[in-house]
Amino acid sequence: MEVKVKGMKGALGIASAGKERLPEAIDRLGLDKYFDEIINHSSIGVIRPNSLYVMCNLQQPTPVRITGESSFVVDSDLLSICEVFFDGRGAVFTAMRNKSESGLPVTVISVNDRTAGIFFSTLRTLFLTDWTHSLATIEVFTKIWPQMVEEFGIKPLQQRKKKGKKKVTVTIGADPEFEMVNGKGAVISASNHYDSEIFGNEGPYGNKIGLDGAGSQIELRPEPSEKPHEVVKRLKGLFQEFNAHYQNMYLGVAGDTYPLGGHIHIGVGQEFIPPGGLIRMLDVFIGRPLMVQSGHARGSYCHESSYERKHYGFEYRTPPASYLLKPEITRIVFKIAKNITEHFINKDNVIYNDPPQKEDYLKLAKLSESEYRKLDEFIASYPALPKIATAFWTKQKLPKRSPVHIELNDEWRTSNANNLTSAINRSFEKSRNKPPFPVVLYGLSKERGLVATIKIPEIAMVPEEDMNQLTVGFVKGSYWIGLPYVLRMTDYYISREQSIVSSIVAEIKRAVKIYKDNAEVLF
């Protein structure tokens, strides 16, 4: 199917959050002719010239000097059905409370004798209450707008087309997430092993090598660049730095234990809310082909058109971390993101096929024949590839494949985790019936007490009525076993290791038999 969308023709200045009825207000009143930035329901760090902010918060105190008041009157019956029209005055009053003789000159806006906004006269910028909440509030806006244009001398930005001809160059960055894998191939929580002092003074959430927000995954944060290969080079340096400090640890992209995002930072030199047409293009060229590689743990994070507005531009959050398995594929994906964004922003009309064809990737994403072939082959072969990115980014060899692929969820005492996984694997070393599926050992909450989801001597089973609330048995290709806090985190494991290991091994063998008899039904 051929798709034709309206590009931005270089007019990068217009940004619209598009929440509630803002798009209708823009179309109805032609607001994009008057403002470079139009935003509602957002936090504003810097008040920009030629901007319209509706029900926005000020992140920093902004000293103002009140120079006057402009009053507007509308039909009281119309205003009476606009219950939220005056909402969001906090930001307006916050600015008015920060009075200073040297502050920005502002005119207070009142509607039917109630404060409804302020006008920064030197910046030609409006800060309004919730004028775009509904069709009714837009009706009020429509009545007042011609009066405001005349009162404040608001004129169309005649130079917009000339400014729009300047080509926008996009920078690319990323903060991908990885699972931490030990030398036995088991996924472990990064928060139990991360050493802040090794990687810098900014802490795990600020260092170039750090933890993601949840604390269980490793996050790499290379400096952005206009050249995708430079970002890949910086990522490679971070892989090597990680490997130097954790010589028996690896970074994986499977995402079956913890959710992994391959977030791409797209910089345009300013805060930017990407139009829907641009996000859809990123979805069809990057997000949709890669989403099937998201891993079982990604859950609600796995959806199209996921992005966040940033001070440098925006972060495209739909892709999983899978494309970061190999440096060359990472470079190709970065190249697609950069070139698709630049093409959309700098062109008037954009035409492509959905799903995109080879010629679309070559023309719009500017891939070479070789790059397109490599990406296509990667997507096709990904399920069979080892998911250890470290092996492709450094000279470190893959961890020795264990008889049982064990993944550890939640908190574990390191010694308990190592002893248990080693003992389980020893039990299967000479077995002909090694499990062909991952085994996930996860933690039940401490509050549940001494309970498990399988039979273990001296440990109670989770009550049957609670079992449906837990992840148990075969789920999305893995076999899940829930274990109590004291087993995972205390000396309880040491004193009862033999019976615990025997019980888990027996359960895995039972699962192998179920798998062989019902594989087609289970998966």
Question: In summary, what is this structure?
Answer:
This protein has 3 domains: 10-162, no CATH class; 171-393, no CATH class; 406-522, no CATH class.
Report on the architecture of this protein.
By secondary structure, the protein is of the alpha/beta class. The protein folds into three domains: 10-162, no CATH class; 171-393, no CATH class; 406-522, no CATH class. Helix content is 34%, strand content 20%. It has 17 helices and 25 strands. Strands 2-4-9-8-7-6 form a six-stranded mixed β-sheet, with helices on both faces. Strands 11, 12, 13, 14 and 15 form a five-stranded antiparallel β-sheet that branches. Helix 1 crosses helix 4, helix 7 packs antiparallel against helix 9 (327-346) and helix 8 (276-291) packs antiparallel against helix 9 (327-346). The radius of gyration is 28 Å and the shape is elongated.
Helix and strand content put the structural class at: alpha/beta
Helix content: 25-40%
Overall structural domain count: 3
Gross geometry: elongated
Taken as a percent bin, the fraction of beta residues is: 15-25%
Q: If helices are DSSP runs of H or I spanning 4 or more residues, what is the number of helices?
A: 17
Low-confidence stretches: 14-18, 160-164
Overall residue-averaged pLDDT value: 87
Biggest beta-sheet profile: 6 strands, mixed
Radius of gyration over C-alpha positions, nearest whole angstrom: 28 Å
First-to-last CA distance: 32 Å
Order of the strands making up the biggest sheet: 2-4-9-8-7-6
Instruction: List how many beta strands DSSP finds.
Output: 25
